[in-house]
Structures are given as structure tokens and as C-alpha cells.
Amino acid sequence: MQQEVITNPFRIQYYDYSWNDIREMVNTMVARQPKRYRLAYHNDYYQKIILLINLHPTFDIQHANLIYISKIDAEPQSSLLIYETKKYDGDITNIRDYQRGTTCMQEFSNDLFLVNHVN
Prior knowledge:
The chain is an alpha+beta fold and 119 residues long. It contains 2 helices and 5 strands. A 5-stranded antiparallel beta sheet has the order 1-5-4-3-2, with helices on one face. The protein starts with 9 loop residues before the first strand and ends with a helix.
């Protein structure tokens, strides 16, 4: 019998901004949209951020996804970031949660772009 394997969605994206700029953009995004984003963890030494994202109208922790953001290059003035999405209570194991995780990651990417281009 063949079984479908579902993994956590991830994406690698390049930004022409330093880690400090990315952190500032994420902080601005969290401050502007508190019903959508919550900062769960950040570490500037290891250049990692964990965000809670919820696409529901009210923030409900049980329906939130986690987005893990890590800088994976050593360039000081640009950032190659990897995003990984998980469910609040662990890894993604079914197609419905995978699609929701992919949507969350796409929304995060769009919102991060807008923070930088809309004052």
C-alpha cells in the first residue's frame, strides 16, 4: 500500500535588506496587524524569528500556524531567508493543513512586502 507523505511547507526567499531591516519590517507588521500576527520568539545572534499567524478574523491560538524564519547566508547587507510553516501543535500531517500553511506563508510574504512599500 502506498501512503502520501505530507511535510511542512517551506520557501526560500532573497531580500535586498539586512537582518536588522528584516527584523524592523517584521516588528512593524506585527504592530500594524495584531489580530493576524504575534511575535513568539526572536534571536538576533542566530538570526531567527518565530511568528504566530492566524488568518481568522479574531486571533485564536488553536487555529494559528507558526512561521519559522531563519537567515541562511552571511551577507551583511542582504538576506537569504528560509520560511517553514507548522501547525500550532506540531508538524503538518494532512493536505488540508498543508494548504492552510502554504496560504499563511504566502500571506506573510505579501504583508512583509507591503510593510516595506506602504508607509
